[in-house]
């Protein structure tokens, strides 16, 4: 019996990927559709076929019967035929013997239950009641399956009825044939049956178990099966990113792409995330669903940040985090994890009137602070307002310069009416920044009996008042956007209305502009300076 299984495949760069998967270990294979995941799993089965069992959970399954209606010889012949088919190259997209596979699973389940009963009866007849009692403590595969179903949120119970038939009950109701189970129930039952009846020291390969099963079912079901068959090794091909997270001792192979020569697959691009990788679960989840280049941003998947930056940095995974602190934590975590050398991580955060020292500190960590106050300042930059005005003029026939001037004037008027709030907001931010910059270090607290921190709040307020008044007087909308959170005023809504749109449609129009207009895209990219050069090199 093998203690490990050899996994290898050619990499796109010409090298070879090699790994030994030991008994008791779990490897999840993840990748987008078309990346070559199915072909890779087929290769692993073919190279370990003698001791491997492939469980095609993603294919349609059904039962022709719920009874033991095949002979041992027929069962063995079917297994040989199924194994031979699974060794073929077309096994990645074709499946033969669908009903027969279910029949073999039924046979093996009934046979396992019967063999256990016979062993107990034999000990009783031999007079060895102690051994018989000990043997009876071993749960049959059917009992184990029922335990798994219950713990996996599948409300059915399986039992063996007269004439070697397997029946199901729902909530202690009347028995019915397992052929009548729903797709999800049937798939959960077959996965469990196939895994529990496999020989010890097998390599069990499960294809896309989530296809017919909800995550609330497939995750506990697989985790429990891994525990029940710790004397086997597992490979699970899946699109469900949380399965590796739910099994922290597992490895994950991230399949990026594959290369063909004609119709023959030649190589793969893939990265291995080892079980002992020293990063938290949130970052692991980010890696599992991402490309090799990642930019962490503030907000959500639907926020202005994520949707805009995805256009600016194509072929880069844009991963949202709740706050700037979370962005910094994620970038730092990945950059400090030496074993994740294949991941390149950066961050983008709002400027929020940060001090030059703080911006420099973030940049050293790989986090870029915008030149303007927030992402809205990019959407509503005067260069983009002007281009949107030109597009609107092409529809309405109005002069684009008039549309632009109206948008800027309306924004400035909104700033005028809310300047006291904006001054107060800026003063508060600057006072806080000043206080944090003056927090004493250990040496200062050790050498001083008292420490005074004094901030001239009035001077800061006066300075901000003079600044905003000058910007208003100069009609410098970009200067205002750079320093103040105009999203907290009516200014942005007024700009959108001035060009004939509501704010949401205006923001969509900006994204469409960046997609269609190379000059607009180049301008937005220019706002990211060194970060752009680092990411697209």
Write the topology of this structure.
Elements: E1 4-10, E2 16-22, E3 26-31, H1 37-47, E4 52-55, H2 72-86, H3 98-125, H4 129-136, H5 141-151, E5 156-161, E6 165-170, E7 176-177, H6 183-196, E8 203-207, H7 215-228, E9 233-238, H8 242-246, E10 251-261, E11 264-273, H9 281-288, E12 293-298, H10 304-312, E13 317-321, H11 324-336, E14 344-349, H12 356-365, E15 367-369, H13 376-379, H14 382-396, H15 400-417, H16 419-437, H17 442-447, H18 457-473, H19 477-483, H20 491-498, H21 503-516, H22 518-526, H23 529-536
Helix pairs in contact: 2-3, 3-4, 3-6, 5-6, 6-7, 10-21, 14-15, 14-21, 15-20, 16-18, 20-21, 21-22
Describe the model.
- This protein has 537 residues and is α/β, with parallel strands linked by helices.
- It folds into 3 domains: 4-273, 3-Layer(aba) Sandwich (Rossmann fold), CATH 3.40.50.300; 290-369, Rossmann fold; 376-439 and 456-527, no CATH class.
- It is built from 23 helices and 15 strands.
- The strands form 4 sheets. The protein has a 6-stranded mixed beta sheet, with helices on both faces. It has a 4-stranded parallel beta sheet with strand order 13-12-14-15, sandwiched between helices.
- Helix 3 (98-125) packs antiparallel against helix 4 (129-136), helix 10 (304-312) runs parallel beside helix 21 (503-516) and helix 15 (400-417) runs antiparallel to helix 20.
- It is elongated, with a radius of gyration of 32 Å.
- The mean pLDDT is 86.
């Amino acid at each position: 019996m093998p203690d490990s299984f050899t996994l290898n495949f050619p990499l796109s760069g010409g090298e070879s990927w090699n790994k030994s998967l030991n008994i008791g270990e779990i490897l999840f294979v993840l990748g987008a559709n078309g990346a070559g995941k199915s072909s890779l799993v087929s290769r692993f089965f073919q190279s370990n076929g003698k001791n491997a069992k492939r469980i095609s959970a993603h294919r349609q399954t059904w039962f022709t019967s719920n009874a033991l209606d095949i002979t041992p010889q027929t069962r063995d012949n079917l297994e040989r035929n199924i194994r031979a088919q699974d060794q073929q190259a077309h096994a990645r997209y074709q499946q033969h013997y669908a009903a027969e596979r279910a029949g073999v699973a039924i046979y093996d389940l009934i046979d396992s239950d019967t063999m256990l009963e016979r062993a107990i009866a034999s000990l009783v007849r031999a007079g060895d009641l102690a051994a018989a009692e000990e043997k009876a403590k071993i749960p049959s595969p059917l009992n184990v399956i029922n335990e798994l179903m219950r713990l996996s949120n599948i409300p059915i119970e399986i039992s063996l009825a007269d004439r070697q038939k397997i029946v199901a009950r729902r909530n202690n109701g009347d028995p019915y044939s397992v052929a009548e189970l729903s797709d999800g129930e049937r798939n959960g039952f077959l996965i469990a049956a196939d895994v529990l009846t496999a020989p010890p020291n097998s390599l069990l390969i499960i294809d896309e178990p989530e296809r017919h099963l909800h995550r609330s079912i497939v995750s506990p079901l697989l985790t429990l099966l891994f525990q029940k068959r710790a004397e086997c090794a597992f490979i699970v091909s899946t699109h469900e990113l949380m399965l590796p997270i739910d099994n922290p001792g597992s490895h994950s192979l991230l399949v990026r792409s594959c290369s063909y020569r004609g119709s023959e697959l030649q190589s793969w691009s893939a990265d291995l995330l080892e079980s002992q990788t020293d990063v938290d679960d949130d970052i692991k989840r980010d890696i599992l669903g991402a490309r090799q280049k990642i930019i962490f941003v503030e907000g959500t998947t639907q926020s202005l940040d994520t949707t805009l930056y995805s256009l600016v940095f194509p072929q880069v995974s844009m991963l949202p985090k709740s706050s700037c602190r979370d962005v910094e934590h994620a970038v730092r975590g990945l950059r400090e994890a030496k074993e994740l050398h294949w991941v390149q991580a950066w961050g983008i955060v709002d400027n929020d009137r940060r001090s030059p020292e703080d911006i420099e500190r973030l940049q050293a960590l790989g986090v870029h602070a915008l030149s303007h106050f927030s992402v809205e300042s990019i959407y509503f930059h005067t260069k983009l307002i002007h281009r949107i005005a030109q597009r609107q003029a092409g529809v309405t026939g109005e002069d684009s310069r008039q549309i632009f001037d109206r948008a800027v004037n309306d924004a400035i008027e909104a700033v005028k009416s809310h300047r006291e709030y904006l001054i107060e907001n800026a003063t508060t931010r600057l006072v806080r920044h000043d206080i944090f910059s003056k927090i004493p270090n250990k040496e200062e607290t050790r050498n001083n009996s008292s420490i005074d921190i004094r901030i001239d709040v009035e001077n800061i307020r006066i300075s901000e008042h003079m600044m905003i008044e000058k910007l208003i007087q100069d009609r410098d909308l970009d200067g205002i956007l750079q320093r103040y959170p105009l999203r907290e005023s009516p200014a942005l809504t007024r700009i959108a209305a001035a060009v004939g749109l509501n704010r949401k449609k205006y923001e969509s129009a900006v994204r469409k502009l960046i997609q269609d207009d190379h000059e607009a895209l180049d301008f937005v990219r220019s706002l990211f300076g060194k970060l752009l050069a680092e990411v697209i090199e």
